[in-house]
Amino acid sequence: MSRYILPVSAFGAVFGCAVLLKDHVTGGRCPSKATINGKTVIVTGANTGIGKETARELARRGGRIIMGCRNMEKCEAAAKEIRGKTLNPHVYARRLDLASTKSIREFAETIKQEEQRVDILINNAGVMRCPAWKTEDGFDMQFGVNHLGHFLLTNLLLDKLKESAPSRVINLASLAHIVGKLDFEDLNWEKKKFDTKQAYCQSKLANVLFTRELAKRLQGTGVTVNAVHPGVVATELGRYTSLHQSQFSSSVLGPFFSLLVKSPALGAHPSVYLAVSEELEGVTGRYYDVMTEKEPAPQALDDEAACRLWEVSSRLVGLEQKGQSGTSNPSVQIVPKKKHTVMSEL
Ligand SMILES: NC(=O)c1ccc[n+]([C@@H]2O[C@H](COP(=O)([O-])OP(=O)(O)OC[C@H]3O[C@@H](n4cnc5c(N)ncnc54)[C@H](OP(=O)(O)O)[C@@H]3O)[C@@H](O)[C@H]2O)c1
Asked: N or C: at which end does the chain have fewer Cβ atoms within 10 angstroms?
């Protein structure tokens, strides 16, 4: 028995230190104390996880918060909880299903009619490693929700963002983009065998490339856009992975995992930092690993791919470009959407 004491104590000590130090090691809190009274913020996927905590922190800082979620029951409950905890009455639940271009257009219309301004748009919602599901419009679910949905939403709100300038767009990407590849011949996984991990990585690479191209197109408008990897955060994101699906891993490994990674409350701080920090005024087109600017993977620096992705995405979601890449007039015109055949439009 005694021969186990040393290794078990050593493991306990290392594990204890890891738990105690994790908040420090994983990035800490947003250093800015900026308040945002009078500013309107949209957070997508705000009923749980990082999105909910981002909405809570920005409500605490005085913002008018619009939570865009697909499940209205969960959204209303989260909005009510945030109003109660922050004593900020201006926290609203609105329907937004990023797996439906119809829903995205309806949401954007509601915002244009109801809101005088949009100062901060946080493209937070995400789905990771789900089965080979398709969105309502026939896109791969991960590419459709994580990239195309936010691409369309952002474009539809650009005029509002420009009117409210200086304004900020924040795209929740992921470190996973480093192993992502964009397959322009088959972005929606129709020709090759579906690989759910690669589909997530592709969608997150698309988030970083979208940020790069949008920043170029918004030069001179006062609207900035940056991408962020929030760190590893204990949320529901892994709900389709084996860690959550197997009884053993969810009941035994899951709690260990949760102790070692950031809480959603801390996981929200990188988004809050990008949204409010004074030192990021005018900073655009960058990628942040938690709260430190980093160079993204080489494939995320490919301007040609970024431009091509923009053009393909515009066609897929039914937006037609009037401006050119790199100009300050990126105005988009909405064209009637054809019944969708994904491959024929590439
Ligand atoms: N957690 C991490 O370690 C981590 C690491 C890197 C990057 N990220 C990124 O951070 C973002 C937030 O993730 P999270 O960890 O907070 O995950 P989460 O707890 O699973 O929350 C994701 C949110 O997105 C919403 N969502 C999913 N599909 C949607 C759709 N079709 N329309 C509207 N909303 C939809 C979810 O709504 P429902 O509740 O209705 O499903 C939920 O509110 C994601 O973009 C993710 O890729 C997270």
From this structure: N
